Amino acid sequence: MKTYLVTGGAGFIGANFVQYMLNKYTDIKIINVDSLTYAGNLENLISVEHNQNYEFIQADIRDEKAINQIFEKYDVDYVVNFAAESHVDRSIENPSIFVETNVNGTLNLLNLAKKHWELEDDQFKPGKKYVQISTDEVYGSLGETGYFTETTPLDPHSPYSSSKASGDLMVKAYADTYKMPVNITRCSNNYGPYQFPEKLIPLVINNCLKKENIPVYGDGMNIRDWLFVEDHCKAIDMVINDGVVGEVYNIGGHNEKTNIDIIKTIIAHLNKKVDSSISEELITFVKDRKGHDRRYGIDPTKISKELNWLPDTPFEEGIIKTIDWYLDNREWTNKIVSGEYKDYYSNMYSQK
Ligand code: NAD
Ligand code: TYD
């Protein structure tokens, strides 16, 4: 029975991953460690909270004592680190917390995994692995052609992507210096259930339902490479089990869309399904994000060839599933947008 220490499992991708794994395997144990920042929400995990193979511990990945106690109590086989500050706009306003969590938090996890897994110099207990969940944003921005491969030089631009790149480099340092067994995954933009409504897709859905303006940064022609979150979870599971130790894997499904295309797709579905007054008139062009990356695009050749991973969900299907999930779970969004988010939204968007 393998024991997974999943960090950040109460956030968007982490919660989807915990559910995916507990649905797929009955012979694993998941310890979910999350400090429950504004982005962490235990309601995302209601479906597994009574599962005997699941346990939640509220702790900060920067907290040496708390994380050490977890390693002492459980024989952890895999660390899967999702915990992060993840929103680019917030990183532009307040970079420090991004360094604290995404760099120092990662370093603390690496140190404690090393402490508990290392046998002697260059030797680790067999079967252990540290998996860092990273992002394609560490590669910077593409022009109209080309893709990010695993050997594309790191060229992050925002405080968020720079902190993720720094975290990745610490993981690489532990692999190169101490021979710690690691993988790094770098995924493109995810979408799906449980995504916090500050991110583009749930923000647009929520604003449409509330008939509020949809703020489009710049000319709306920035391109992101969208991946359904369950396909990401499937890839991470494959990397944990079969990824070659020390390797980086890019994860993406060639689903590049401009922001304006995404927004129009959402409006069209809600117009048909919910209310014909939801229209493109809600689209409002606002001041561009500072340092806004123009295009992201992943080359997934390595993970598809080595691990036989391919995404299962075409964008046209995934986006409808996602919109419908938000329609069926309006209470989930309403609770979030009536709390701290309200102040965040008015502060952030009053400047645009
Ligand atoms: P999220 O913001 O929804 O969730 C982050 C989670 O981490 C939250 O539950 C939060 O409470 C927790 N957390 C934050 N700081 C913590 C700390 N110091 N200690 C413990 N827990 C802490 O993020 P997400 O979208 O689910 O992203 C998960 C990971 O995947 C991140 O590392 C992110 O960089 C990466 N990623 C995200 C995307 C995307 O499109 N969302 C794409 C590629 C990579
Ligand atoms: P986001 O969901 O924040 O993800 P990321 O910046 O990590 O790619 O944004 C996706 C794209 O949508 C990005 O190009 C910025 C743009 N965007 C808007 O135009 N308006 C918004 O209100 C938000 C949140 C994002």
Automatic annotation (TrEMBL):
<dbReference type="InterPro" id="IPR036291">
    <property type="entry name" value="NAD(P)-bd_dom_sf"/>
</dbReference>
<dbReference type="InterPro" id="IPR016040">
    <property type="entry name" value="NAD(P)-bd_dom"/>
</dbReference>
<dbReference type="InterPro" id="IPR005888">
    <property type="entry name" value="dTDP_Gluc_deHydtase"/>
</dbReference>
<protein>
    <recommendedName>
        <fullName>dTDP-glucose 4,6-dehydratase</fullName>
        <ecNumber>4.2.1.46</ecNumber>
    </recommendedName>
</protein>
<comment type="similarity">
    <text>Belongs to the NAD(P)-dependent epimerase/dehydratase family. dTDP-glucose dehydratase subfamily.</text>
</comment>
<feature type="domain" description="NAD(P)-binding">
    <location>
        <begin position="5"/>
        <end position="321"/>
    </location>
</feature>
<keyword id="KW-0520">NAD</keyword>
<dbReference type="GO" id="GO:0008460">
    <property type="term" value="F:dTDP-glucose 4,6-dehydratase activity"/>
</dbReference>
<keyword id="KW-0456">Lyase</keyword>
<dbReference type="Pfam" id="PF16363">
    <property type="entry name" value="GDP_Man_Dehyd"/>
</dbReference>
